[in-house]
Design brief:
heterodimer, A: alpha+beta, eleven-stranded mixed sheet, 17 strands, 30% strand, globular, B: mainly alpha, 2 strands
């Protein structure tokens, strides 16, 4: 399973900086295509044994794992149902499990890692240093583990037919009125990447986008050396659901953009039909760094796009600093607005009440009350949305995706 | 009256604005990479076949259904519970022209019998 150096027999791994296979012992460098083909053919036939078969536990409630033998040290390599590459816990050699990436399950394309492990950590530190609400302990975080994982993706072409009704506010004299706009048409989607791992949530993986699919190379197992990887385990139902969801988002976005001269636009009624072009469905692996660290006894995960270096994570925030500044600023603005209202409202109200009917007073007060309530509720909703988004990448599922691997 | 209204409005407006600003600051500081590939990455927009800029209330409720055109699929949808795999020639043969949306089996390409010549023998 481990590819050995032609010069010294040491294990070689893929190096993102040089885009070559590098021997960890003598420093020899080779292009992935230079690695002997017969070695790969021989290893394709290597079969795994079910852990349940070996240890005699055939109870279905247990997740079955597979055992391979490391061809470097003879140690047992245990992998779960969807892993395609890992490291031997005994000798540390990278191991690509060929029989798991064969035939229909073998990816067609791969974007090799462009960002090295050191660069990934450095990018995170630079980004963290810019965060005003990031605690000092996190700015100086010590990674618990830094793992390069190739995530399986399906690259999808699809067509969506949709018809939507957009509601919007249009100015009519001094007032604004609600109008409805109908839009129907077709939209083609090209090379949409969708994460093919059940364990990794779509919300998290979609944040790693964009990947530049023009950088995809033909899949070669040697790109996996030194990294972890998973194979696809999603069903057609999962894929259809994910494509349909993204297609609807894009259709609505484009339909809303097409409605001109209206504000507060939203889709209120819709019908869609999305068809995936199965002929052009491509299977690829995209790189990501998963960095884990502990903060106040809780696991946190940071994702870094292994091609572009985009950092994705919600960072625990310094709540004391945040709420102190928020309350202080709130009090200052309250005082400012108090004086502003104190001196501007009475003349406004008295002018109106003397000149026109007292109904005008009610209108002004109603308008201000509505504005204040709207701003207050939108402000609170925004804070809640941000906190929810921050917590998203701290889900246990992501941590499990990273942790359930051999060191 | 003025003071009373100022006491009510000022905290609402002050804290509302502060919540709004601080939500942005918190997102910028701690919610990293909150974006995904938008429509322009993967589509060229919609090719519209219908645009109606003023629709009334009754049409508002029926528009989506009335103007919806289903897509004619080249292949029938694969079994939803099966794991996704790269489409092979075998899959193509198995699923081609089985799409119920196409209703191919309802089309009759052969020659129709003359109207005055019944297909079935009439019962006596």
């Amino acid at each position: 399973m481990a590819t050995l150096c032609k010069n010294c027999g040491g294990a070689v791994v893929f190096d993102p900086k040089t885009q070559k296979m590098v021997c960890e012992f003598c420093g020899g460098m080779f292009l992935p295509e230079e690695i002997e083909a017969e070695n790969k053919d021989l290893l394709k036939d290597k079969q795994a044994q079910s852990m349940n078969d070996i240890y005699g536990t055939d109870e279905e409630e247990f997740l079955d794992c597979y055992i391979y033998t490391c061809n470097n040290c003879g140690g047992e390599i245990i992998i779960n149902g969807t892993e395609a590459s890992t490291n031997c816990i005994y000798c540390g050699n990278s191991a690509v499990v060929f029989s798991r990436v064969s035939k229909q399950k073998k990816p067609q394309y791969i974007i090799p890692f462009q960002v090295s492990k050191e660069e990934a950590v450095s990018i995170i530190r630079t980004r963290f240093n810019k965060g005003i609400f990031i605690p000092k302990e996190i700015k100086n975080f010590k990674p618990d583990s830094v793992r390069g994982i190739y995530i399986p993706y399906w690259i999808v072409d699809a067509e969506t037919s949709g018809s939507v009704v957009v509601q919007g506010q249009v100015k009519s004299g001094k007032n604004s009125v609600t109008r409805y706009f109908g839009r129907a048409g077709r939209m083609k989607i090209r090379r949409l990447p969708l994460d093919a791992s059940v364990l990794l949530s779509d919300e998290s993986s979609s944040r790693l986008e964009p990947y530049n699919t023009s950088n995809m190379k033909e899949f070669d197992e040697d790109y996996l050396r030194g990294f972890y990887s998973n194979i696809s385990d999603v069903t057609y139902n999962d894929l259809r659901r994910a494509v349909g969801k993204r297609a609807q988002e894009y259709f609505n976005e484009s339909a809303i953009d097409d409605v001109k001269g209206a504000s507060s636009k939203k889709v209120i009624s819709s019908m869609y039909d999305t068809a995936i072009d199965y002929d052009t469905l491509n299977y690829a692996m995209f790189p990501a760094w998963f960095v884990t660290y502990d903060f106040k006894g809780k696991h946190n995960t940071i994702l870094v796009n292994g091609e572009s270096g985009k950092v994705v994570c919600g960072v625990p925030w310094n709540k004391a600093l945040f709420y102190t500044l928020l309350i202080a600023s709130g009090i200052i603005l309250t005082v400012v607005f108090f004086f502003m209202f104190k001196y501007t409202l009475p003349p406004l109200l008295s002018t109106r009440s003397s000149g026109h009917s007292s109904n005008n007073n009610g209108k002004i007060i109603g308008f201000i009350i509505a504005g204040v309530i709207a701003l207050f509720s939108v402000g609170i909703a925004r804070i809640r949305k941000v906190i929810k988004s921050i917590n998203l990448t701290q889900e246990q599922a992501i941590f499990n995706f990273v942790k359930k691997r051999q060191e | 009256m003025g003071n009373f209204l100022a006491i009510i409005f000022a905290p609402g407006l002050g804290f509302g604005l502060v919540f709004f600003i601080f939500a942005k600051l918190l997102a910028k500081s701690n919610d990293l990479g909150d974006s995904k590939g938008d429509a322009s990455f993967y589509t060229n927009g919609i090719l519209f076949n219908t645009r109606k800029d003023r629709i009334n209330n009754s049409e508002k409720n029926s528009f989506a259904l009335s103007y919806h055109v289903p897509i004619n699929r080249k292949y029938a949808e694969p079994d939803g519970l099966k794991e996704v795999h790269v489409f092979t020639d075998k899959d193509r043969v198995l699923t081609e022209n089985k799409d119920p949306m196409k209703n191919d089996e309802l089309d009759f390409d052969g020659e129709l019998p003359p109207i005055d010549k019944p297909i079935f023998k009439p019962l006596n």
